[in-house]
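step=encode ok
step=design start
structure_in=
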């Protein structure tokens, strides 16, 4: 595979995460990578078989939304890790380590630390209080219709933004590997996404995510082992050689230098940390296990897999310094790495495994995107069918059959919308959408979830005002910021000077929720405060919780 195709591959995969450079312009048709195509076909064939198998076991609403609650803690932890670990973070963190050394490790560990802190706060209570979606928890002691409407809107906005980024990246990746027209590629991805969710539901989605996680961990483990083998499994030798080769010398072993704008860095960090605990497709995963103990195990296993993954990316980054930067085959005439630092892990894959392993990494990149879009689609469909249709429109009186029918219709509609948005945004810079999705999840979904679980004075009025303020503030600040206001709309200077809005939109959400709750002296507000205490006991023990106890 030539350097041009390698560069395109890295750029495409990186587009699906916050470390992305935007996808823009045309991708020229390339000579086919036979190994990549074979592995791609094998993956699609295996996952379609899993979908067929899952469809035979998906008979009820509970089966469709939560795989019947029969997923084990280990399986769910691996599936969560499959949602969280991406080929983008694989290449992005490796690139940070390659370019900045120790700073790259700090960057990745910062995200990892947020994972157990946040999810250990909510996993058990989420499982005890909820049934299908996180809105079940948020509306437990508050008014059903307004809270579910807010939760569903927040979920759908996050899903839409995430889907755009994934569809554009997936479409161009398939265009690259197969030489297909971009529009045909997007339609192909959309059809596969709909098939997984429409027929297999959560069970098929879970196993697609597990397979993807196994493939990514296997690929990263192989690369790390080959790097360590080249230095006789001596970390001191690896670091010594990296320091000797890297232009920054010993500075790569010291922290500092990555953060030029502390406010934007803090804002992005808050979005990624707290946004993770507000992503609807991540939260849905805790309803697939049958009790709170398995939910805790899910977090434990997911944290272990994710932590191991980040250790691998650290080794891979330093390995790229030693094996890639010293190899003139991966540099241009000026001695600059072909495709930039984001190419480091891709060049390393080629160096340690040749074109066959490079084809494997290509298939993993596609598996990553497909696993994410399947989870997003199911989360969006459940928000529409369970929260809006069954709970708001039908006021809890919808039959299971009708709710499932609405959910499947929504899956088809979401598939069509995702294809249309993928085509519409083909030439746009879409990297900012992932950051905005995390910011909205952190500013709208997370505050309502955490306060409904822990704060006794929360009322419907406070939750509604704070949640909508957080959502609107995040969107408006992103529009007025450098990415959209300057780069896309063409203005000279941004009105909001920072890249990401989470720092300010989260403050607005929490302050708005607090203020409008404590000033709510209505009878309904008082009743909602009183409901907290029995709810709190139930959430600790899991005893006495039933859907009939909801008003």
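sequence_out=
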């Amino acid at each position: 595979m030539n350097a041009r195709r390698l560069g395109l591959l890295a750029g495409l995969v990186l587009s699906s995460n916050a470390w992305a450079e935007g996808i823009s312009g045309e991708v020229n048709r390339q000579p086919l990578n036979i190994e990549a195509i074979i592995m791609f076909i094998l993956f699609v064939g295996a996952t379609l078989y899993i979908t067929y198998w899952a469809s035979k076991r998906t008979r009820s609403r509970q089966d469709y939304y939560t795989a019947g609650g029969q997923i084990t803690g280990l399986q769910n932890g691996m599936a969560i890790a499959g949602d969280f670990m991406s080929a983008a973070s694989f290449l992005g963190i490796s690139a940070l380590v390659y370019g900045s050394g120790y700073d790259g490790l700090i960057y990745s560990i910062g995200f990892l630390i947020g994972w157990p802190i946040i999810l250990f706060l909510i996993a058990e209570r989420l499982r005890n209080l909820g049934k299908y979606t996180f809105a079940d928890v948020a509306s437990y002691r508050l008014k059903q219709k307004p809270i579910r409407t807010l939760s569903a809107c927040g979920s759908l906005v996050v899903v839409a933004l995430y889907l755009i980024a994934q569809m554009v990246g997936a479409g161009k990746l398939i265009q690259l590997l197969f030489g297909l027209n971009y529009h045909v590629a997007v339609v192909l991805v959309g059809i596969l996404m709909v098939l997984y969710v429409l027929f297999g539901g959560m069970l098929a989605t879970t196993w697609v995510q597990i397979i993807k996680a196994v493939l990514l961990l296997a690929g990263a483990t192989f690369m790390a082992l080959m790097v360590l083998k080249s230095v006789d499994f001596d970390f001191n030798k690896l670091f010594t050689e990296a320091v000797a080769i890297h232009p920054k010398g010993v500075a790569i072993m010291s922290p500092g230098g990555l953060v030029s704008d502390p406010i934007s860095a803090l804002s992005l960090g808050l979005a990624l940390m707290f946004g993770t605990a507000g992503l609807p497709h991540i939260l849905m995963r805790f309803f697939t296990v049958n009790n709170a103990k398995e939910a805790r195990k899910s977090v434990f296993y997911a944290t272990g897999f994710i932590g191991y993954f980040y250790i691998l990316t650290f080794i891979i980054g330093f390995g790229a310094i030693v094996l890639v930067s010293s190899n003139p085959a991966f540099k241009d005439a000026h001695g600059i790495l072909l495709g930039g630092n984001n190419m480091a892990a891709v060049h390393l894959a080629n160096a340690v495994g040749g074109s066959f392993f490079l084809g494997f990494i290509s298939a993993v990149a596609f598996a990553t995107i497909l696993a994410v879009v399947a989870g997003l689609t199911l989360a969006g469909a459940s928000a529409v069918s369970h929260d809006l249709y069954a709970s708001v429109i039908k006021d809890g009186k919808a039959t299971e059959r009708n709710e499932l029918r609405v959910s499947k219709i929504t899956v088809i509609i979401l598939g069509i919308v995702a294809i249309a948005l993928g085509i519409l945004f083909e030439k746009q810079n879409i990297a900012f959408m992932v950051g905005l999705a995390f910011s909205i999840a952190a500013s709208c979904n997370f505050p309502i979830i955490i306060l409904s679980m822990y704060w006794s004075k929360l009322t419907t009025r406070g939750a509604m005002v704070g949640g909508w303020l957080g959502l609107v503030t995040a969107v408006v600040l992103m529009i007025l910021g450098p990415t959209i206001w300057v780069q896309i709309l063409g203005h000279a200077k941004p009105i909001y000077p920072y890249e990401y809005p989470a720092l300010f939109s989260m403050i607005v959400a929490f302050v708005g929720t607090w203020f409008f709750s404590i000033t709510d002296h209505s009878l309904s507000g008082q009743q909602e405060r009183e409901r907290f205490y029995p709810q709190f006991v139930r959430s600790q023990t899991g005893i006495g919780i039933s859907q009939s106890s909801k008003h």
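step=design ok
step=annotate ok -> The chain has a mean pLDDT of 80.
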